[in-house]
Amino acid sequence: MGQPSVTVFVDNVGTPHTFIKVDDGNGHVDYYGFAPSTPGDPHGSGKVGEGLTTHARGDRDNSRAGYIDDVGWSKTISIDNEQYDAINSAVDVWKAADHTYNGLATLGGENCTTFVQSVLQAGGVTGITTSRTSLPINLIPAAERRTLFDTDADGRRSPSDALTDPLHTPGTPAHEYKQSHPELFETPPNSTPTKDPTHSELRLNNDGSFTETIRGEGDNAADTQTNEYNADGVATRSTQVDGAGNDADYASRTAAFDTLGRIDSLDVRRDDGTRDMTNYDQNSTQAWSRIESRLDAQGREDYANVFIDDGNRTFYDYDQTNVRGDRTWQTHVDAQGRTDWTYVTQDDGSTDWTDYDQTNTRGDRTWQTHFDVQARTDWTYATLDDGSTDWTDYDQNNERGDSTTQMRFDAQGRTDWADVIHDDGSRDWTDYDQNNERGDSTTQMHFDAQGRTDWTDVVQDDGSRDWTDYDQTNARGDSISQTHTDALGRTDWTYVTLDDGSRNWTDYDQNNERADRIWENLTDAQGREDWARVTHDDGGVHWVDYDQTHQRADRIWENFTDAQGREDWANITMDDGSRNTYDYDQNGSQRWSRIESHFGANGRAEYATTYFDDGSRVVVDHDYYNFGDHKIVQYDALGRGHLVGSMMDRFPGLVFPPAGGVMAFDGTVLATPQNPNSPGTSSAAWIPTDTGAICGIIETPWGTYVDCA
Q: 505, 458, 504: which is closest to 485 by C-alpha?
């Protein structure tokens, strides 16, 4: 049984390439190589090719392992059967994995070099470089690799003929293979030879690093790609230049990679002078995975995109041309692509913050906040889930009399309430009945700095208004003063609660529906009426004073004053139910000045006194003789009295003098007077009678009587 082996081939012509030959030692040989599924495509789907080919035979779909006529170096390593089987198994696994091809073995892709290293590692082959490298030439051991480069005049080292033209350089695998298999180097009929799509130049730098320059063909002949590799053959930088100017995507594109083949940065320069820069956190040392930036033709940053590790993203839009009112606009998008927040820096230095409840965890949809240039909150605007909005305006410059004004608008944009906090700490609350659910349209409340209610103002649906003023500082004699005005602004009533618990009610007849203008009363702390005062339309005033505390001998004291403030009458109800009345001739229209009367608890008159303008008076003593039989006595201005006579309820309007007879209230003598020489006379006018006697008229509340001298 023969000795199995594996051979590594390195091709440095055109597009650098490497592939392997696996020999079981008994005549069965397989060739394997990894290349792009589409020839010339540096990044995309890859596939494992099998078998050898030459450019003369062609390989239009990259189905072969490699071109033997481009191989300038090879190495065969003996292996055992287990290694042989492991290598073939690794090839099968690679085929099934459907790897992405990347010419530099970056961006998570694989290339021909990583393929060869992977299957060699699986087979335990140590005679070749198996640390990750992306440059085929780095598979060549260092000592042999140095012999394959010539030193240039500038001190750099360029590949020798063995690497650049192996087919015509004796001793190379390509040259030797052509000698033994000349038929492979001839193009059969109906076949199309395949040219290498690129021209590649490789330089070995003094520090052991490599610089590879690849040029295109035809219309792309001016295009170049410069790849830089470290001494281990790991790609560190790749720059593509659209020299032909036929690629709209870029003028140049530079990618930098770390030693693990992970992209570190990407710099794309465009024909219009703009530039796209991407910085990757391939080491996961930052909270973001990459940052994309756009610079305009003047080198000013236009926008940036920061991709966060948790899948979120923050977008920065800069107003570098100063065409907007802001400098910077930031937008944060969550992992589901929903806007989380925005942050706008305005030209004046103020900022606008908008927070979206995209996860629906709060009661609002959007919360906006504006900060001034000193970073002080200027206003906030919250849109709630039900469509209503909250507006808060802060007086951060201390230009107004309030520190904060808040307003709530419902989903229809109607004002629901307002809350104003003043500089002195007091507060104004206004509640609007925008849904017309209450009997009022607006309710306003003012609170002092200690949170105590100062006043309320309620505007009713009919246009009337209720004002309530609280004496929360105890500076007045009342605790609460309420006022109701009608839709025309006229006072309807007031209601004042005094500090001692008593209450003063005033009712105004602003519609002129009653005979009075104003009706007032006072109730004490126990709810008992203390007094009432009624001002009538003619200016007269009716006063009622109640002895609700039982401190006086009367229950009720009433009087009436006319429009000139003169007392017209008074009525006093005593505790025992009796009553005193006073009737005043305040306007001088009568011959008497006042009449005083007393009524018993049963409501029956007991006595009455009429005071005349000349100083005389008439006293009527009711029920003096008998029930319903009343005595009448007249006193002159000097106080001298004489008996006028009596009146009887059963003879209304008649006076019975002591001398006998009877007199009618109109002065007609019905009988001879009892005492025609009585010294007492009234000051009333004297009138003649048919008897020739001179008689005076006596007027009382109960009728007009006659006294004859």
A: 458
Could you report the per-residue pLDDT of 139-185, keeping only the tens digit for each? 888 888 888 888 777 777 788 888 888 999 999 999 999 999 988 88
Question: What are the extents of the domains in the chain?
Answer: 5-196, 605-708
Q: How confident is the model at residue 291 (pLDDT cuts 50, 70, 90)?
A: very high
Beta bridge partners of 545: 531, 557
CA distance 168 to 172: 8
Q: Decide if pLDDT at 23 tops 80.
A: yes
Assessment of whether the complete model's pTM goes beyond 0.85: no
C-alpha closest to that of 391 among 373, 374, 372, 366: 366
Write the CA distances from 564 to 509, 584, 587, integer angstroms: 20, 14, 9
DSSP-derived secondary structure letter, 388: -
DSSP type of residue 110? B
For residue 166, what are its two tokens?
């192996």
Closest CA to 402 of 426, 378, 382, 381: 426
Residue 409, H or E segment: strand 402-409
The number of angstroms, rounded, from the C-alpha of 604 to the middle of its chain's C-alpha atoms is: 78
The phi, psi pair for 289, rounded to 5°, reads: -95, -35
Cβ neighbours around 125 below 10 Å, total: 21
pLDDT single digits (tens) 664-702 = 544 443 433 333 333 222 333 333 344 444 445 555 444
